[in-house]
C-alpha cells in the first residue's frame, strides 16, 4: 500500500523544484515507489569541495530534499512538513560520477516524521547516511 497521501510522480516533483537549489545543483529525481523516492546529484564543478570530493553540504542538500519531499507527500491533505533536525555521516568520498540517495520512512506520526536517506556512489558503495526529523504542521 502506497505511503503517499497525494498524487506523486517524478515529473511533478521535478516541476516543483525548478529554479531552486535542487535544480541549480543538478539534482535529478529518478524513481518513486510505494514507500521510497530516489534522486541523484552529479559530482562536478558545482558540487565538489576544493579537495575534489563531493561537498558534504551537497550530500545534506540531497538528503534534505528527499526527506522534505517525501514528508510532504506523506502528510494528510492540508498539512505541511518542515525540517526540525538533520544529521549526516560521510562514510566515503566521491570524486566523480553520480551519488544517488533513497529516502524511506522510519516513523510517520501525527506531529513528527523521521526519514532515513542512504546515498551511494555509482558502484553501489554507501557514501553517506542521513536522518531527518520533520515537524508536521496542521492547516491554519
Automatic annotation (TrEMBL):
Query: Signal peptide position in this chain?
Result: none
Catalytic activity, EC: 3.1.2.-
GO CC annotation: cytosol
Q: What GO terms are given for molecular function?
A: 1,4-dihydroxy-2-naphthoyl-CoA thioesterase activity
Domain of life, per UniProt, equals Bacteria
| Membrane-traversing stretches | none
* Ranges of residues in domain Thioesterase: 51-128
Enzyme kind, highest EC tier = hydrolase
User: What SUPFAM superfamilies has UniProt attached to this entry?
Assistant: Thioesterase/thiol ester dehydrase-isomerase (SSF54637)
UniProt keywords (A-Z) are:
Hydrolase
The UniProt entry, under PANTHER family, shows: 1,4-DIHYDROXY-2-NAPHTHOYL-COA THIOESTERASE 1
Q: Which family does it belong to?
A: Belongs to the thioesterase PaaI family.
Name of this protein: Putative esterase
Q: What is the source species?
A: Rhodoferax antarcticus ANT.BR
Classification from the root reads:
Bacteria, Pseudomonadati, Pseudomonadota, Betaproteobacteria, Burkholderiales
Amino acid at each position: 500500500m502506497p505511503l503517499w497521501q497525494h498524487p506523486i510522480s517524478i515529473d511533478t516533483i521535478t516541476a516543483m523544484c525548478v529554479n531552486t537549489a535542487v535544480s541549480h545543483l543538478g539534482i535529478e529525481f529518478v524513481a518513486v515507489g510505494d514507500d521510497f523516492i530516489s534522486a541523484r546529484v552529479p559530482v562536478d564543478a558545482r558540487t565538489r569541495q576544493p579537495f575534489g570530493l563531493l561537498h558534504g553540504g551537497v550530500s545534506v542538500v540531497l538528503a534534505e530534499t528527499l526527506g522534505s519531499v517525501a514528508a510532504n507527500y506523506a502528510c494528510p491533505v492540508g498539512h505541511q512538513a518542515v525540517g526540525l533536525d538533520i544529521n549526516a555521516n560521510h562514510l566515503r568520498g566521491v570524486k566523480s560520477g553520480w551519488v544517488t540517495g533513497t529516502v524511506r520512512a522510519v516513523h510517520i506520526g501525527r506531529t513528527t516524521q523521521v526519514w532515513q536517506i542512504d546515498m551511494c556512489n555509482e558502484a553501489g558503495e554507501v557514501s553517506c547516511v542521513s536522518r531527518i526529523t520533520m515537524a508536521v504542521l496542521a492547516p491554519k
